[in-house]
Input
Amino acid sequence: MLYQKVRFIVIQKINLFLKTQMSESILLKAKNPSKSDRSFLVNDLKQLETARIDTQLSIVYQLFTFINAIIAGLTTSFSLSFVFIITSLVPLAIQPLFNKTITNRSKQ
Output
């Protein structure tokens, strides 16, 4: 819930900033600014900025979750966490050994 609250506050502030800047720019530079032009331009920028903010916040949240899980795992059971990490890395080591065979068979 805290993540969602922070996300909405950040997006709201950035959208308000973008809307203010775009409105000032359009009103000061355009001779006959139409309401629909302003609306489309501001909405496009808000959507782009919202997607960027969502992505950045998601990366931070996922990184925090990963670090938290590693710390919790190492704190509760070091041996089990060690086995889990090693078994998770085994496919990375084995995959290059079979990659050429799989590629050749898929071409046939």
Remarks:
- The first helix runs from residue 2 to 29.
- The mean pLDDT is 79.
- The two ends are 52 Å apart (CA to CA).
